[in-house]
Predict the 3D structure of the following.
Amino acid sequence: MNSRQRRGVILLVVSLLCALGAFAGVLSVIRDANAEVGPKVTAYRLKGDVEPYKELDAEQFVKVSMPERWLSETAVTNLREIRGKIAVTTLRKGSLLQDDMIVERPRLEPGQQEIAIMIDAATGVAGKIDPGASVNIYATFKAEDEGQRDQSRIIVANARVIDVGELTPFDRDQDDRRREDTEAVPITFALDTADAQRVAYAESFATHVRLALVGKGGDSAVPPSERTYTLDKDK
């Protein structure tokens, strides 16, 4: 082997060593990247806005794959978790679904039944009553005889709301004693039989039926002496 051939062999070996070094460097970078990113898991991103207290559906989400270490502990990774649940606030398009964004839809307890009534949108709801809320149901009754007085009564205390419908045009019968309203909201309650009868009676015969939102916490019981009000109590 002459000197020219020896130089060629040396250059070939040097080139091969450089290539092996570069390849090792690439592998090292890949290993570092994989170690930094970690395994990937499935998450779910919202396709569009979802209004609060609306039941969730799988069609509202798109599946995405993300590194597990980039997700919070509350991220939803299985859509089975949304069954029977509702949004607790407005969910924005593009957000990743978290389990603290959703709650179980209010359900009937043993011995309860659903009853829905139309409530005047202006005086009874005002957009602040949502599923899961507790309300006092008030009814006002006109005096039937001259010796009687008009009354306002709490017919059900701490009634649990399980659904709030859409604002609906509502025409009352002409012989209904209450004033006609152009819009109302159907509110569904979970009540026992006695309270359901009270609500049905008030919805049929009261001059007005209104709801008062009960604040969370504290003692919300209403004493019997405070359940009925007549104007002469303030005299």
